[in-house]
């Protein structure tokens, strides 16, 4: 085994002198051929060179080994063998020849004429050489820029041979040539890989990439640019950049580009992403976002322009802006509608429809309501521009069968033009043509969970598309309007029903009052007879005094005053009677409750005397007023007093006959009136039943007095309940709310 110096060799082992010129020609061919050789042909040229080397140097095999700088791996990359000698396939050789690879990677050659020349530390390598049949070998490391990149190995398998100095030197030169060839290949591969990667990036880029030379002519036009502008690259390359810019911008754009080429200074329009306009092959303009950069190649400027079509983005931005402004409009409308008194809806709703129509630029906005039976649409409110016709008051489903069916299913119907009406909607299209409606948006509106109304927007004269972002908001304001109007309608219906119920209640209450007065006729006659008898007696006494000339006139005057008082007493009885039996409209006003109680007590006082019942008044004396219909409240009191007197008609099992009437403020905003008797009482099972219509504990009762009384009290916002009197008898209590103080 020898070191890098050329080994001594016998003259008989040196190659013939005639081999040397051929070897020199080989070196010259390799040195020149590898320089401009395409990458794809370098591998074939290396294999051919190894073939020539094997023939010229009379060796059996020549291998080219490559080293991996990062991992230290060593692999045969190229090989050539003489016929009869097995060629080496590309494979790793680091494991089989570890000592050889370490020596080569340190920059030292491995040369032996016989295997015995290998040192002991190369035992593994010697075994591998024997296994492959190698007898002599010359392996030279290849270096590029001081870095070992591989080696060239020459081997003899059929006989041993020496390696003279001139062969050693030429092998070194050969290693340098192959090293340069491999470096050239690697550089070309990296260049081609980078170029391919760049081409792939440019071609696959989503943005358009256009390169322009110093004359402002296109030299690169990627696939995205082809799609964006509608030009093939073959037509675009060589064309001036102005070809893709609208006429009105070309002069100014040329000035900007020229300034950028000369100075490299960017402006607000060029050099940063800025919204501009570009021109497609069909002549249409579209918005773009552009950035530009400058490079110098071979002394010539090269401008790279990256373009992005922002048509969809700007359209989306416009839709979002419109949606936000529409959202603000709807918020203002909704707030106004919710704050508006019910009586103002007839004014506020059309104003809301007008605001929607003017904002969206439509000609007519109509709010319809499905009629009972869903066979037609009834006009609720509408707004129309100056040229739009007034909508009909009623639209039959027969005129719009296809449209009505879909709306009732809750489907939105949107048509940008007449041509979008389906064939099965021939009736709708015919009506639309007659009315001049080009575009239509009909949104079904749900009230209480079911489709009850429709908000319809129409455009005359020209078609238009409807933004999907606006439809949910249109539905929202439509349902707000529909629910408010439905709430208003139900409120009106409720008021009408309550008014009608109150009128019927008053009629029935009047009948009960008349019946009550009939039952009290004996007592009333007795009460009326007393002042009449007194008037008669006072009048006779006055007549006698007048006949006596000696009578003091003051005595006669006293008698006449008494006559007037009794007449007034009788008149009060008649007045109270007339008030109770007279029909009257419901009149709620502030009432002195204790004053009303005292009037009722006066009406039953005679009856109490006739029945030997003691009246016990326990009135607060400081009660606030209540808002009520005084006659109806007195009717309730009179009914309770009459029932109490009837309950004590039979001999009282609990002692004295006592009718107690009391008042108290039982809550900050509530007054309670209590009527208690010591009569026969009410069974616990009947305490609630006594308020049911036609239920009575009296053989002669109608059974509607307490039922009417409870409804009267509840209509005034109070309650009426019954309970047993702990001392015997029954207790009825009713409450009334205190009149609210007004500032």
Question: Strand content of the residues, in percent?
Answer: 15-25%
What's the alpha carbon Rg, rounded to whole Å? Answer: 59 Å
CATH topology of the largest domain: Beta-Lactamase
Shape label: elongated
Protein structure class: alpha+beta
Number of strands: 23
Instruction: Please count the helical segments.
Output: 18
Please describe what this structure looks like:
The structure is a single chain. This protein is an alpha+beta fold. The protein has five domains: 11-191, Beta-Lactamase; 205-309, PAS domain (Beta-Lactamase, 2-Layer Sandwich); 320-491, GAF domain (Beta-Lactamase, 2-Layer Sandwich), CATH 3.30.450.40; 520-582; 584-743, 2-Layer Sandwich (Heat Shock Protein 90). The protein is built from 18 helices and 23 strands. A six-stranded antiparallel β-sheet has the order 13-12-11-16-15-14, with helices on both faces. Strands 2-1-5-4-3 form a five-stranded antiparallel β-sheet. The N and C termini lie far apart (124 Å). Residues 1-6, 8-18 and 268-273 have low confidence and may be disordered.
Give a short synopsis of this structure:
By secondary structure, the protein is of the alpha+beta class. Helix content is 45%, strand content 22%. It has 18 helices and 23 strands.
What features would you highlight for this structure?
single chain, 743 residues, alpha+beta, Beta-Lactamase, 5 domains, 5-stranded antiparallel beta sheet, 18 helices, disordered N terminus
What topology emerges from the helices and strands here?
Elements: H1 19-33, H2 39-57, E1 61-67, E2 74-81, H3 98-105, E3 110-112, H4 123-132, E4 136-144, E5 147-156, H5 165-204, E6 208-212, E7 218-221, H6 223-229, H7 233-236, H8 247-263, E8 274-279, E9 285-297, E10 300-309, H9 311-339, H10 345-360, E11 364-370, E12 376-384, E13 394-396, H11 401-408, E14 413-415, H12 426-435, E15 437-447, E16 450-460, H13 471-519, H14 521-547, H15 553-581, E17 589-591, H16 593-610, E18 614-618, E19 626-628, H17 630-647, E20 658-667, E21 670-676, H18 705-715, E22 720-724, E23 730-737
Parallel strand pairs: 18-20
Antiparallel strand pairs: 1-2, 1-5, 3-4, 4-5, 6-7, 6-10, 8-9, 9-10, 11-12, 11-16, 12-13, 14-15, 15-16, 17-19, 20-21, 21-23, 22-23
Helix pairs in contact: 1-2, 1-5, 2-5, 9-10, 9-13, 13-17, 13-18, 14-15, 14-16, 16-17, 17-18
């Amino acid at each position: 085994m020898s070191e890098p110096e050329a080994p001594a060799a016998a003259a008989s082992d040196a190659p013939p002198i005639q081999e040397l010129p051929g070897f020199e020609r080989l070196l010259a061919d390799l040195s020149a051929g590898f320089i401009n050789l395409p990458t794809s042909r370098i591998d074939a040229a290396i294999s051919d060179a190894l073939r020539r080397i094997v023939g010229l140097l009379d060796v059996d095999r020549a291998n080219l080994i490559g080293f991996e700088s990062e991992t230290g791996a060593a692999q045969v990359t190229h090989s050539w063998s003489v016929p009869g000698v097995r060629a080496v396939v590309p494979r790793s050789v680091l494991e089989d020849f570890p000592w050889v690879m370490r020596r080569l990677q340190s920059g030292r050659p491995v040369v032996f004429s016989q295997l015995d020349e290998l040192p002991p530390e190369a035992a593994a390598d010697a075994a591998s050489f024997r296994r492959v049949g190698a007898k002599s070998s010359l392996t030279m490391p290849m270096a590029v820029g001081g870095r070992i990149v591989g080696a060239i190995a020459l081997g003899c398998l059929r006989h041993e041979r020496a390696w003279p100095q001139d062969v050693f030197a030429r092998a070194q030169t050969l290693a340098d040539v192959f090293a340069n060839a491999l470096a050239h290949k690697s550089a070309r591969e990296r260049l081609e890989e980078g170029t391919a990667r760049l081409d792939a990036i440019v071609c696959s880029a989503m943005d358009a990439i256009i390169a322009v030379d110093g004359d402002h002519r296109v030299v690169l036009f990627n696939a995205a640019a082809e799609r964006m502008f509608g030009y093939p690259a073959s037509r675009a390359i060589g064309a001036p950049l102005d070809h893709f810019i609208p006429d009105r911008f070309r002069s100014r754009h040329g000035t900007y580009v020229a300034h950028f080429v000369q100075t490299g200074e960017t402006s607000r329009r060029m050099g940063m992403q800025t919204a501009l306009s570009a021109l497609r092959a069909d002549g249409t303009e579209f918005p773009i976002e552009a950035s530009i950069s400058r490079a110098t190649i071979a002394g010539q400027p090269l401008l790279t322009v990256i373009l992005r079509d922002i048509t969809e983005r700007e359209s989306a931005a416009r839709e979002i802006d419109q949606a936000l402004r529409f959202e603000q409009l709807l918020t203002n409308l909704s707030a106004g509608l919710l704050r508006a008194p019910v009586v103002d809806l007839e004014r506020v709703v059309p104003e809301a429809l007008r605001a929607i129509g003017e904002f969206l630029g439509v000609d007519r906005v109509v709010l319809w309501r499905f009629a009972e039976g869903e066979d037609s649409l009834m006009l609720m409110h509408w707004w129309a521009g100056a040229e739009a016709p007034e909508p009909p008051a009623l639209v039959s489903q027969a005129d719009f069968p296809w449209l009505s069916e879909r709306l009732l299913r809750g489907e939105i119907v949107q048509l940008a033009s007449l041509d979008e009406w389906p064939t099965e909607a021939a009736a709708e299209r015919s009506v639309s043509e007659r009315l001049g409606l080009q575009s239509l948006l009909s949104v079904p509106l749900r009230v209480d969970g079911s489709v009850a109304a429709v908000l319809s927007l129409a455009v005359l004269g020209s078609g238009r598309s409807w933004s999907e972002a606006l439809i949910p908001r249109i539905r929202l304001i439509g349902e707000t309007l529909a629910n408010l109007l439905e709430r208003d309608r139900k409120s009106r219906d409720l008021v009408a029903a309550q008014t009608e119920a109150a009128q019927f209640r008053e009629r029935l209450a009047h009948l009960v009052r008349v019946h009550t007065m009939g039952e009290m006729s004996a007592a009333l006659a007795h009460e009326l007879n007393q002042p009449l008898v007194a008037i008669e007696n006072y009048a006779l006494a006055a007549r006698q005094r007048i006949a006596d000339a000696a009578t003091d006139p003051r005595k006669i005057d006293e008698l006449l005053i008494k006559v007037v008082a009794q007449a007034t007493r009788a008149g009060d009885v008649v007045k109270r009677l007339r008030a109770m039996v007279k029909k009257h409209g419901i009149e709620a006003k502030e009432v002195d409750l204790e004053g009303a109680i005292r009037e009722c007590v006066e009406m039953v006082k005679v009856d109490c005397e006739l029945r030997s019942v003691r009246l016990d008044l326990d009135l607060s004396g400081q009660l606030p007023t209540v808002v009520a219909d005084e006659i109806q409240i007195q009717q309730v009191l009179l009914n309770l007093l009459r029932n109490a007197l009837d309950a004590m008609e039979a001999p009282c099992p609990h002692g004295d006959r006592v009718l107690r009437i009391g008042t108290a403020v039982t809550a900050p905003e509530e007054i309670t009136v209590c009527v208690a008797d010591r009569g026969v009482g009410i069974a616990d099972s009947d305490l609630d039943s006594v308020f049911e219509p036609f239920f009575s504990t009296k053989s002669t009762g109608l059974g509607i007095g307490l039922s009417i009384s409870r409804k009267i009290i509840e209509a005034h916002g109070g309650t009426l309940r019954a309970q047993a009197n702990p001392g015997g008898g029954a207790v009825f209590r009713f409450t009334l709310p205190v009149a609210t103080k007004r500032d």
